[in-house]
Design brief:
This protein is of the alpha/beta class. The protein contains 20 helices and 9 strands. The N and C termini lie far apart (about 65 Å).
Length: about 525
C-alpha cells in the first residue's frame, strides 16, 4: 500500500511548473528561508497576489504560515525554480496520511476484507493523490486532521495522547483556519453523541489540549489575521441563508463529482444503519455532515459567475469518505463476500456510483469547454495515463521563453495577474510589473513599475482570454504615444490544468483550442 501510494504521489512530481497558488506558496517559502518571515519583496520583485490583499507591512499576514515554513528548507537548499523539491514535503505529508490510515487498520485488527476494501478506496482516490502533489496547504491539512481523528479515537490515560491531539490541531490551525474550526466541530459533535460514553476526557486532558490552543493558537491568529479580511458582502439575512443552502448543495455535489466521496453511499448510510446497526455508519456520516455545514457557513461567498463550491475546502474529509464507503460495502456483502472486491473496484475505480454523466459541476463553469465532463470513466486509469505521458506545461514553456528573450530587470506585465507568480518563480530575473492598483501606505516607497498603468513595461504577456484586455490596454497606451508590437505567440493551451479539483484537471493535453484567443501572446514596446 505504501509503495503504491508513494508511486502515485511522487512519480514525475516535478514535471509541471508550479501553477499560480503553488507559486505563491513557494515564493513566500523562499522569503522565509532568506529572512525568517513572509516578506513580500524578493530581490527586485514584489509578491502581491490579488492586489496585495494578503499583505500587511509588506509581509503576508493573511495566509496561515505552516506551508511556507514547511517548504522553505527544501526550496532554499535546492534553489528557486525547483518543482520536485517544492512539492516534496507536501507529498511526504500525503504519504504519512496513508501511513496513519494503515496504522489505524492495524490497531483495529481489521479483517483481510476490510484491508482490501480500504486499499481500493485509498489507491483509487485520485483527488487524494492530486492534493498530495501540490505545493499548497492541502496535504498538510489532510494529515493534521487525520491525526486529530486518530488520537481522538485512540485516547487513553496517557498525557502524550492529549499532547498529540493538541499538536495536530495546532498544525491544522497553522495550515488552514477553516479546517481547524470544522474539525473541532466534528470532534465535539462525536464526543457529545458517542465519545463521552466510551471514554470521557479528564480535566488534565482538556487542559493539555486547550491551553496550547489559547496560547499558541491565539498568538498565531493575532499575527495572521484572517478574520480581519472582509468576504464578499450579502444584502440581508435572507439572501445569506438562501445562498448558504445553495452552497451546501454545491459542496455535496462537488464532493461527489470530484470523487472525494461517493454521494449515493453517504446519503444511504443512515438507512443502512437502521438495518445493520453498525454505529460507524452514523459516526462517519455525522462527521461528514458537520464538516460540510461548517465549511458552508464559514467559507467566503463565491465570486460572481462561479456556480460551484470551493471543493478544496473539503480535502480533509477524503479519509472519512473512503471509510464510510468501505463500511457500507462491507455491510452489504456480509453474506456475499466474493462480491465485496468487485463492488469496491467499481465504487473506487470508476465514477459509476458517483453518477457518471450526471456528476460534475455546472457546464458553463471555467474550462468546462476543454475538460471532458459528463461521461463514465475510470479516473485512476486516466491518472495513470497522465503519469505515463504528462502534457506539456504552459507556464514552463513561457518561463523558458522569458529566460531566453528578456534581459535581467527588464519589466514585464502579465495578464491575468495570477499568472505572474509561476513566471516569477521559474524565471525571476525580470521585474514583474503592474501588480498593484494604488499606492496605499505600505506600498508608498515602491517604484512606479509595480503600480497598474503608472509606467509602461517593456513586455506584456497575455494568457488566453486576457488577450482582449491586453489589446485594450495597448490601444490606450498607443493613444499616449507608447507603441507595442506583437512579438510572438506560444502555441500551447494557455493554462496548466493540473489543479487537484477534478473539474479543473485535464489528464490529457488540450489540443483542440483556438489559437486566436486560447494561446499565449507576447508583446514588446517599440523603441522610444
Amino acid at each position: 500500500m505504501l509503495a503504491c501510494a508513494a508511486f502515485l504521489m511522487f512519480f514525475r512530481l516535478g514535471h509541471y511548473a508550479l501553477w499560480d497558488d503553488e507559486a505563491d506558496t513557494a515564493l513566500f517559502a523562499i522569503s522565509v528561508w532568506r529572512t525568517g518571515d513572509t516578506f513580500a519583496m524578493l530581490d527586485h520583485n514584489l509578491i502581491a497576489h490579488t492586489d496585495g490583499q494578503e499583505l500587511k507591512g509588506l509581509r503576508n499576514r493573511y495566509i496561515p504560515p505552516l506551508p511556507f515554513y514547511l517548504a522553505a528548507p527544501f526550496i532554499g537548499l535546492a534553489g528557486q525554480g525547483t518543482t520536485f523539491w517544492a512539492r516534496f514535503p507536501f507529498a511526504v505529508c500525503g504519504l504519512l496520511t496513508v501511513a496513519v490510515l494503515l496504522l489505524w487498520l492495524w490497531k483495529a485488527n481489521a479483517s483481510v476484507k476490510t484491508w482490501m476494501l480500504m486499499s481500493a478506496g485509498i489507491l483509487g482516490n485520485v483527488s487524494l493523490m492530486l492534493y498530495a502533489r501540490q505545493c499548497r496547504y492541502y496535504s498538510v491539512s489532510i494529515l493534521a486532521a487525520t491525526c486529530m481523528a486518530y488520537f481522538y479515537f485512540h485516547r487513553d490515560d496517557r498525557l502524550r495522547t492529549s499532547l498529540f491531539i493538541a499538536f495536530s490541531s495546532l498544525a491544522l490551525l497553522a495550515s488552514q483556519y477553516l479546517f481547524y474550526v470544522a474539525a473541532y466541530a466534528c470532534l465535539l459533535t462525536d464526543y457529545v453523541l458517542w465519545g463521552r460514553t466510551e471514554r470521557s476526557f479528564s480535566k488534565s486532558d482538556l487542559a493539555l489540549i486547550f491551553i496550547p490552543q489559547v496560547v499558541f493558537g491565539g498568538w498565531l491568529v493575532s499575527v495572521y489575521d484572517l478574520l480581519g479580511k472582509k468576504a464578499l458582502a450579502y444584502h440581508g439575512l435572507g439572501e445569506w441563508l438562501a445562498a448558504r443552502v445553495n452552497m451546501l448543495f454545491w459542496y455535496f455535489r462537488e464532493m461527489n463529482g470530484c470523487e472525494h466521496g461517493i454521494g449515493i453511499l453517504i446519503l444511504l448510510s443512515p438507512f443502512l444503519y437502521v438495518m445493520v446497526r453498525d454505529r460507524r455508519l452514523l459516526r462517519g456520516g455525522t462527521a461528514l455532515f458537520v464538516f460540510l455545514v461548517c465549511v458552508t457557513v464559514l467559507s467566503p461567498k463565491p465570486f460572481p459567475g462561479y456556480q460551484m463550491a470551493t471543493v478544496r475546502y473539503l480535502a480533509p474529509v477524503i479519509p472519512v469518505c473512503i471509510f464510510v464507503a468501505v463500511v457500507f460495502i462491507d455491510a452489504i456483502t456480509v453474506r456475499l463476500k466474493w462480491l465485496a472486491v468487485p463492488l469496491a473496484l467499481v465504487a473506487f475505480g470508476t465514477n459509476v456510483l458517483h453518477g457518471g454523466p450526471l456528476s460534475g459541476v455546472d457546464d458553463k463553469t471555467v474550462f468546462s469547454e476543454v475538460i471532458a465532463q459528463g461521461r463514465f470513466r475510470s479516473t485512476i486509469v486516466e491518472f495513470l495515463g497522465e503519469l505515463m505521458s504528462p502534457p506539456p506545461s504552459a507556464y514552463r514553456r513561457t518561463a523558458r521563453w522569458i529566460d531566453g528573450n528578456i534581459k535581467k530587470r527588464q519589466s514585464v506585465a502579465v495578464l491575468p495577474s495570477y499568472a505572474t507568480y509561476p513566471l516569477m518563480y521559474h524565471a525571476p530575473h525580470p521585474i514583474y510589473a503592474w501588480q498593484l492598483k494604488k499606492k496605499t501606505p505600505q506600498f508608498q516607497s515602491l517604484p512606479d513599475i509595480h503600480f497598474y498603468g503608472l509606467r509602461a513595461p517593456k513586455f506584456m504577456i497575455a494568457f488566453g482570454p486576457s488577450l482582449h484586455q491586453a489589446k485594450g490596454l495597448l490601444k490606450n497606451m498607443e493613444a499616449q504615444g507608447i507603441e507595442y508590437e506583437h512579438l510572438e505567440t506560444i502555441d500551447i493551451y494557455w493554462y496548466d490544468l493540473i489543479r487537484p479539483e477534478l473539474f479543473w484537471h485535464a489528464f490529457n493535453e488540450i489540443r483542440n483550442f483556438s489559437i486566436a484567443d486560447q494561446a499565449i501572446y507576447i508583446f514588446q514596446r517599440k523603441k522610444d
